[in-house]
């Protein structure tokens, strides 16, 4: 039974292998995550302005924003429409996550930075998984640029290393006494 999805996305069994309806849902979910990750990175850098952490994460934050733009370009190349409600959901979820209790009522605690780094780590890991999935589809889907995806993967791996290094450092500040 091949019914047209309610979202207005045309049914899609691409003869080269990619189910474009499913890929569209997948990419829009990643766009929601990329929106949240971009906002999280910007917020974290602003929150620790003037510190070594801000200096280390400033370039990563800029790259994360560039990666979101790259995802939008890939979606455009594939003819996948952006689902604005998912973008808004990602943006809203990131803002709501800031309301999480951190052990202090008004100001930031060391736990705030640590938890934001953990959230950023998860976001970068999710992005990496998305690039890996697209890279796996690239041989069959000629609209995907394998070299671009390789570059995005290399950058994501580097971002993971930087974020994890700082997350590990902050664990000592946030969770150890003395």
Please characterize this protein's 3D structure:
By secondary structure, this protein is mainly α. It has one domain: Ferritin (Up-down Bundle), CATH 1.20.1260.10. The protein has 5 helices and no strands. 28% of the residues are buried. The N terminus is likely disordered.
Summarize this structure as a short list of keywords or feature phrases.
mainly alpha; globular; 71% helix; 5 helices; disordered N terminus; 178 residues; Ferritin
What's the helix and strand layout?
Blueprint: H1 20-47, H2 52-78, H3 84-97, H4 110-137, H5 146-175
Task: Identify the CATH architecture.
Answer: Up-down Bundle
Helix content: over 70%
- Average pLDDT value? 84
What overall geometry do the principal axes of the alpha carbons give? globular
Distance between the termini: 65 Å
Largest sheet: none
Low-confidence stretches: 1-15
CATH topology, which one? Ferritin
* Strand elements, count: 0
Proportion of strand residues? under 5%
Give a quick rundown of the structure.
The protein contains five helices and no strands. With 178 residues, the protein is mainly alpha-helical.
């Amino acid at each position: 039974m091949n019914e047209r999805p309610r979202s207005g996305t045309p049914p899609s069994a691409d003869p080269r292998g990619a189910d474009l309806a499913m890929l569209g849902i997948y990419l829009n979910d990643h766009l929601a995550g990329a929106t949240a990750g971009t906002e999280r990175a910007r917020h974290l850098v602003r929150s620790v302005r003037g510190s070594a952490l801000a200096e280390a994460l400033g370039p990563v934050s800029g790259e994360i924003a560039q990666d979101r733009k790259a995802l939008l370009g890939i979606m455009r190349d594939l003819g996948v429409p952006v689902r604005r409600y998912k973008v808004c959901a990602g943006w809203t979820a990131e803002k709501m996550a800031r309301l999480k209790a951190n052990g202090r009522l008004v100001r930031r605690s060391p736990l705030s930075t640590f938890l934001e780094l953990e959230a950023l780590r998860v976001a970068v890991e999710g992005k990496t998984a998305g690039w890996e999935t697209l890279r796996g589809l690239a041989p069959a889907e000629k609209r995907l640029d394998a070299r671009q995806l390789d570059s995005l993967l290399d950058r994501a791996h580097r971002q993971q290393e930087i974020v994890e290094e700082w997350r590990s450092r902050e664990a000592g500040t946030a969770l150890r006494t003395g």
